[in-house]
Amino acid sequence: MMQKRVVTIIFGLLMLFSFINMVSADVDIDIQSIVIEEPADGIINDKDHILIKATMGNLGDTDWNSGYYVDTYINGKKYGSCSGTCELSDSPVNQGFKAGQLVDAYWASSATDREYLQLGENEIKFHLGFEEETEYVEKSIKFDISEGGLPELDLEITDGLIEISRINGEDVLGSIEAVIKNNGPVSFEDDVIHISFCISSENGELNLGCYGSFIDLRAGFCNPSTETCVLEPGQSITYSNEEHIDLINSRFEYGDYVINYYLDDVNGLENYKDTNSDNNYYYSNFEIDRDISEPPKENQTELILDEFSGIMMERMVKEKLDSRLYNKMKLCSNCGSLPQPSISLEEGDKSAIYNLYLHGQKVTSFIRPYSITQDAIINNPGNVLLNNNKVDGTNSINFLIPSEGNYFQNRYDILTPNQITDIRYKIVKEEGEYGSAYFFILEDDNIFNLDEIVQTFDEIVYDNSNLAGITPVPSYYAIVMPTVFSGLLGGEGTFYMGDNVISLNFGGEKYYDLHGREKIKGSFSHEYVHLLQSLEETGQYAIADNSGFFMEGMADGVSIFNGYRQWIDVIEDPIEPGCSQLVNQHVPHTLGRCIFKHLDQEGFLNEAFFNRLFHLSGDSYFIYTCDASLQDPSCTSELNRLLSFSANQDMSSFMETSLLANLDEVLIGQEAKFASQSEDSCSLIGLRKDGNFCSPEKRWIEQKSADEFCDNNFECSTNLCIDGKCVSSGVWQKFLSWLQKLFG
After folding, report:
1. DSSP one-letter code for 371
2. 500: buried, middle or exposed (CB in 10 Å: 19+, 13-18, 0-12)?
3. pLDDT digits 0-9 by tens, 380-412
4. Which of the four CATH numbers 3.40.50.2000, 2.40.50.870, 2.40.128.110, 2.60.40.10 does domain 155-288 have?
5. Which CATH architecture has domain 11-146?
6. Alpha carbons 476 and 480: distance in angstroms, whole number
7. N or C end of the chain: smaller count of CB under 10 Å?
C-alpha cells in the first residue's frame, strides 16, 4: 500500500522574489535571506519537522506593479509554485510589490518525506520570475538530514471506559474515555497524542461513525499547575471525549455495540519515532437498552428556564451551554480576588485593568484579546496565561500601556491608564421563522442588528434545504459568540454541535463590523449543511469518509452554489487541474474544496446534482482510504462511483483530467486513464465500475462474492478482503468502523 506523504505545504506563504536591477535602478527586488526556522538549532534528524523561511522584497524607492511568481525546487525537483492570486504575507503576487515592501515565504515538510528529501545533504531553491520578463533570481539553502537521534516510545491503550446513565427509560451515553499508558523507555512531553474511536452495532448493521480528538501536552498549551504535561514511563493519562456525545446519542438504537479505540501515529508524536503499533488499538463493547414502557424521551425543543441568563431556552440549547460552555468559562460570582497577570503593550508602564463578565459573573477562563502591538508578559502568577492566548484562572488582566487607546486587533475596547475597563456581555435570544439564535453581545451593544441576522439565517436554511430536496425545513438553533468565548470550544469555535445546534464565532465587535457581516453568512450556511448531512433521510451515513473531507467540500459547495460564500474565500479561483498541489493539503477542508471547486468549474454542480447527493440510494461509498493527493486506487474508484451517481453520468474522464491530472508516475505507478479504453481494457488498477474491477493485468474482471479468494479489497463486491477471502456485506459494515482511522 502506498505510503502517505506527511507534508504540509504552506503555500499561502510560499516564496517571493528576487529580481536584480530591474528596468530602473530605483527598483531593487531580491531574495534577501533563507533561514531554517525549525528545528531552532538547525540540526535536522530524520523524524523532525522542517520549516524554512525566505525573506524577499523591494528595497528600492519605486513600486513594482507587475505580477510575479515563485517556484520551489527540492533537490532539483519542482515542489510547488505561487502565482496569480496566491498570497504571500497577505499580498497577492499578481499585484507586484510596493517600494520597501518585504514579505516572508515559508516551506514546510517532515524530514521523512522520501519523495523529495533524502538522508544526507539536501538543497531547497527559490526561483523568482516575473510576468512577461526574462529576468529571474534564484537562491538556495543546503542542509543535512541525519538518521536516528530521536527516542523510541511505547504508548498503549490499556482500558476503554464507557459511562451510561438511565434517563427517562433510555440508556444515554455520558462519557467515553480511554486510558493511555507510557510503557517507556522515555518520558513523553511537549507533543500531542492523537486518538480516535469508532462505534458500530455488534451485528454490523448500524455504523455510528468515527470520531477523533487529542491530548495536547505541548508547552504553552498544557498548564502544569492543573494538568499532566509530562507522561513519565509507567504513568497513565486519561483521554475523555465530550464533544461528540450528543451526536452519538442521537444516532443510537436499541442493541449491542462495539467501540474501537486507536492511537494515530501520523499527525501526532512529532518528536518521536513511531510508537509500538501493537499497542495502538483497543476493543470494547456495551449495550444500549431503551424500555418503551417507561416515559418517552424528553422533548428537546421544550422551553426550559436558563437560570443563569433568565432566558427560556430549548432544552438541547441549554444542555449544550451547560455542558460545553458555562463549565469551560469557569464562571463565579463570589470567588474573591484572583491572580492578576501583567502584560506590557508597546513597552508601556501605565496600568490599565481589563475585566471580563457574563451576566455579572466573572469569566475566569477565556481567550484573551489579540494585541495589534508589541506585547510582553511581565508576570504570570498562578500560570494563568497560557501561550495559546488562553487565560485560565482569572477574569482580570493588568495591561501596561503608554497612553489611552485601542490596542486590540478585532475589538473596539479602549484601555485608559489608571482606570478599569469592564467588558460585560449578556445573552440575547432572537427567534426566526425556522429557528432561534442566541447572541453573546455587549450589554451596551450598538453593532448587531439581530432581527436582520436571523432573517438571513432563515433565508439560508430555506435555500439550503430546498437545494437538498428536504422538507419540511429542519429547524436550527444558533449560538453566536465572540472569540473570547467560542475559542474555548476548540478550533475556530464554529461547528455543528449536534441536535440541530450550531456554534458560530463572529471574532470581535470590530472584526464583525468591518469584515464579518458577510463571512458569518458563509459560516452559518456551511454548518447548516452539516446539520442536513446528519439527518437520516439524506443517506449521508453511506459515505465512509475518514476525515470528513468530502462532507466539508460538500458544505462549501452548497453554500457557494446558493451565493452565501465565494470560492476565493476558501480556495484558489480559478483552480489548476489536480489536487495534490494545494496549500495545506492535509487539512480535510482543502481536499474536499478542491473536488467541489473542480466540479463547479467544469459545470457539474446544479440542483439535480445536489438533490441526488442528498438522497443516496442506500449503497455505501468507501472513500476512507483517500489521502490528500488521491493516490489510493480504492479511494479513486469509490470517489468516481459516488460522483457518477450524483452527476447521473460517468465521471471517469472528470476524475482523470480534473482531479488526478498532476499525479506523477512515481506516485501512482502510471498515469490515471479512465477514458478512451477498449471495451475489455482499463488503465487504473483498482478502479471499480459496473460490478467489475480493473485487475493488475489492466483487464476488467467481475467482482467476487463472499468467501471467494482475493488479494485486494477492490476485487470483492463488498470492497473488503481479509485473510485472502472476500467478507460478506454484514461483516463488512462491522469492520468498517474498525478501519476508519480519524474524525467522524
Report:
1. B
2. buried
3. 998 898 877 889 999 999 999 999 999 998 999
4. 2.60.40.10
5. Sandwich (2.60)
6. 12
7. N
List of residues 6+ apart from 518 with CB closer than 8 A: none
Residues of the chain with CATH 2.60.40.10: 11-146, 155-288
Least confident interval from 31-35, 80-84, 358-362: 80-84
Most confident among 460-469, 584-593, 669-678 (mean pLDDT):
460-469
Closest CA to 395 of 428, 438, 359, 371: 359
309-313, 535-539, 544-548, 563-567: lowest mean pLDDT where?
Answer: 544-548
Residues 6+ apart with CB under 8 A from 416: 352, 404
Cα three-residue angle 448-488-569, rounded to 5 degrees? 60
Q: Which of 438, 430, 432 shows the shortest CA–CA distance to 458?
A: 432
Question: Parallel, antiparallel, or unpaired: how do β-strands 621-622 and 543-544 relate?
Answer: parallel
Question: Which of 395, 401, 362 is closest to 378 using CA atoms?
Answer: 401
Q: Which residues on adjacent β-strands are paired with residue 379?
A: 342
4: pLDDT strictly greater than 80: no
Q: pLDDT tens digit string along 591-638?
A: 889 899 999 999 999 999 999 999 987 677 878 667 666 766 777 888
Residues present in the chain in total: 744
pTM: 0.59
Closest CA to 551 of 220, 237, 210: 210
- C-alpha grid cell, residue 107: 516551506
Residue type, 571: I
For residue 56, what are the CA distances in angstroms to 37, 377, 437, 533, 729?
Answer: 16, 31, 47, 45, 57
Q: In this predicted structure, which of 114-123, 555-564, 591-600 has the lowest mean pLDDT? A: 114-123
